[in-house]
Amino acid sequence: LQECKIQNSSREYCKIFAAEARAVPDFGAVPEIIPLYLIYRPANNIPYATMEEDLGGPCEQYCVTERDGSLVARGTSEIVLKCCTFQHWVYQWTNGNILVTDMEGVGWKMTNVRIATNLKGYQGLKESCFPSLLEQFVAAHQCNHYCSILGLKTLEPAKPKGSKSPSMGRKSAQSSPQLQK
């Protein structure tokens, strides 16, 4: 249940990111986080399972959390750079409260996402979820071309506040996505 909530909430952020990126000329393709479904199988020894679309190939790791707790972008391909830009965007959108830490997939379709947050109770987490990764991301993130064309600001440690869009060129106000409890 927890994995479904995290992946599907990250998917909602990704949809908003995609809409903003599509409004910028020359941004190009954007990552898509595929939905993860929880299914109930009452006649099975393990009554709950998750199910998602078959991506049609082996998953590649684009952005991962290493065993030592460090965040690593795997390469400098367009997909990796746009995943890093998405991470920056989510961090900025949520005023430093949430970070999508792990992204892997096939092509532009992402799965197995993880988050770090300092919001107690986010997605049903009883405790904070790797809040040190938020600080590390701020220190380690190198803005790239895609961060620049979206108008994202250089990262600084943020004080928790309400959420708003980091996009500079927005013509009409839009509220932030609701966090699921």
Protein traits:
five-stranded mixed β-sheet; 29% helix; disordered C terminus; 181 residues; 4 helices; alpha+beta; Protein kinase-like fold; two-stranded antiparallel sheet
Task: Walk me through the topology.
Layout: H1 2-22, E1 32-33, E2 37-40, E3 48-51, E4 60-65, E5 71-73, H2 78-93, E6 98-106, E7 109-117, H3 131-140, H4 145-149
Parallel strand pairs: 1-7
Antiparallel strand pairs: 2-3, 4-5, 4-6, 6-7
Structural description of this entry:
GO terms for molecular function: ATP binding; protein serine/threonine kinase activity. This protein is α+β, with helices and mostly antiparallel strands and 181 residues long. It has a single domain (1-150), classed as Alpha-Beta Barrel (Protein kinase-like fold), CATH 3.20.200. The chain is 29% helix and 20% strand. Strands 1-7-6-4-5 form a 5-stranded mixed beta sheet. A two-stranded antiparallel sheet has the order 2-3. It is globular, with a radius of gyration of 16 Å. It starts with a helix and ends in a 32-residue tail after the last helix. 32% of the residues are buried.
Shape: globular
Task: Encode the helix/strand succession as letters.
Answer: HEEEEEHEEHH
Share of helix among residues?
25-40%
Termini Cα gap: 12 Å
- CATH architecture assignment: Alpha-Beta Barrel
CATH topology tier name: Protein kinase-like fold
Query: How many strand segments?
Result: 7
* CATH homology superfamily: MHCK/EF2 kinase
Name the structural class: alpha+beta
Radius of gyration: 16 Å
Strand order of the largest sheet: 1-7-6-4-5
Average pLDDT, all residues = 84
- Number of helical regions: 4
Largest beta-sheet characterization: 5 strands, mixed
CATH secondary-structure class: Alpha Beta
Count of all domains = 1
